[in-house]
Design a protein that fits this description.
β7 and β8 form a beta hairpin. Strands 1, 2, 5 and 6 form a 4-stranded antiparallel sheet that branches. Strands 4-3-7-8 form a 4-stranded antiparallel sheet, with no helix packed on it. It is 0% helix and 52% strand. It is an all-beta fold and 103 residues long. The protein has a single domain, classed as Sandwich (Immunoglobulin-like).
Length: 103
């Protein structure tokens, strides 16, 4: 299982995205959470089919509470299909000089 999580913005909106590749041989489930600077969170629940093809999961796009994208954090937690065993946690980090991630 591989995953990369980031915060995206455009048009006055912000959202979280996880790119993944599920090579585990079993379907998995992910919860992607976007944490906003005003304390609110936005979540998406995604099924990750088994296979070598890359995929992605996104939270809903919301109006930005703060124009500084670095004030947002996205975290994806991947578990088995029943959610009983956590397998991977992937989080966003702002780029050192850019104030956020472009993808």
């Amino acid at each position: 299982m591989e995953a990369q999580t980031c915060v995206l913005s455009g048009g006055g909106r912000t959202w979280g995205r996880t790119y993944y590749r599920n090579t585990s041989g079993e379907p998995l489930h992910a919860v992607l959470t976007l944490m906003r600077p005003d304390g609110r969170t936005v979540q998406a629940h995604c099924d990750l089919p088994a296979g070598d093809e890359p995929g992605s999961c996104e939270t809903p796009r919301e109006a930005m509470a703060d124009r500084d994208r670095a004030a947002y954090v996205a975290v994806a937690e991947v578990a088995d299909a029943r959610g009983e065993r956590k397998l991977l946690r992937s989080g966003s980090n702002p780029a050192p000089d850019a104030g956020g991630s472009d993808h």
